[in-house]
Automatic annotation (TrEMBL), chains A, B:
MF GO annotations: hydrolase activity
Protein name, UniProt field: HD family hydrolase
InterPro entries: HD_domain, YfbR/HDDC2
Domain HD residue range list: 7-174
Organism of provenance: Rubellimicrobium aerolatum
Length: 189, 189
């Protein structure tokens, strides 16, 4: 129960991305819910050997470390902050503390699932990462640019920082979404 | 994708319950995420025959109808509004529209899962309902009363409107939580 009350704080971690209607910034709790729904809806885009139930569990847990570290936007610091050694070390310490609130073996199981997501090597983690990358693209398209405007992102940067990762786990999905981003970047340039 | 963009609106549906720190009202999107986490953590409280993966899916979907209908708090209108014939009919129409945004068979599958949750007859649905009822109790305990203060709820009303439902799917959990609510109601009376 201490873990579940602590987890509540993820609802106060703000992301750079807004809601689809642009009314306010999205928080990491509701983002995690939205991603779980993405996994359920887009199950057909997953490659062979993907367990959607494991992907859903992974996505429910994936951002909990942000309670301590905050969200580090993909496009911030010219794309250099997200995944930096400093951020990764802080997230590891956060995982230690937060999953440590659970009794073992549950704490160890949850932590292993989070580490699998972070490592992005297994089919489940690769697909989960694709969804984590594509949802902000959909939010930006719906809100008229969102973080692409905030950070002055180009179509090439989107392809390098986001597209490659989405395509790795869900190539057909990225093809479909990229088509829709073309209109935005054409009119923005 | 139309369904996933429409679902984003659940993040703007406000519940009566606040965050654990009392800073603002909780929305139904982040609430749904929190419940999925409850299911993962409290899996050991589920009765025999419960599939936690199905419970998680059910909880991810369970509040989508509130996009059209809004949240109807358990304790509002002296406990009479929630589950009234009028609200149920509106929720049914909302399910028709919202799940209708998905292609079949997926739309029909999601709708069936939502109906199973609403009917609260299968072991999965009974456990999912228990979590949906117990999470606001935990939020109220953390925030110093929350909706119990708002609606002037007594320990007896809590038992009748909430406790019975939690105990149906997770008797040990309700015993543990009720113990903690006793302190609150003693000091409030």
């Amino acid at each position: 129960m201490a873990f579940l009350v602590e987890a509540d704080r993820l609802k106060s971690v703000l992301r750079a991305t807004t809601l689809a209607d642009g009314s306010r910034r999205e928080n990491s709790g509701e983002h995690s819910w939205h991603l779980a729904l993405y996994a359920m809806v887009l199950a057909g885009e997953a490659g062979p050997g993907v367990s959607i139930d494991r992907v859903v569990r992974m996505l429910i847990l994936h951002d909990l470390v942000e309670i301590d570290v905050g969200d580090v936007p993909i496009h911030s610091s010219e794309g250099a902050a997200h995944g930096s050694a400093e951020v990764l070390a802080a997230e590891r310490a956060a995982a230690e503390r937060i999953f440590g609130l659970l009794p073992d073996p549950q704490g160890a199981e949850f932590r292993a699932l989070w580490e699998e997501f972070e490592a992005a090597q297994t089919p489940d983690a690769v697909f989960a990462k694709s969804l984590d990358r594509v949802q902000p693209v959909m939010q930006n398209l719906a809100s008229g640019g969102g973080t692409w405007v905030t950070y002055g992102v180009t179509a090439e940067q989107l392809e390098a920082r986001v597209g490659v990762k989405v395509a790795r786990g869900a190539p057909g999905l990225w093809e479909w979404v990229r088509e829709r981003t073309r209109g935005y970047f054409r009119s923005a340039s």
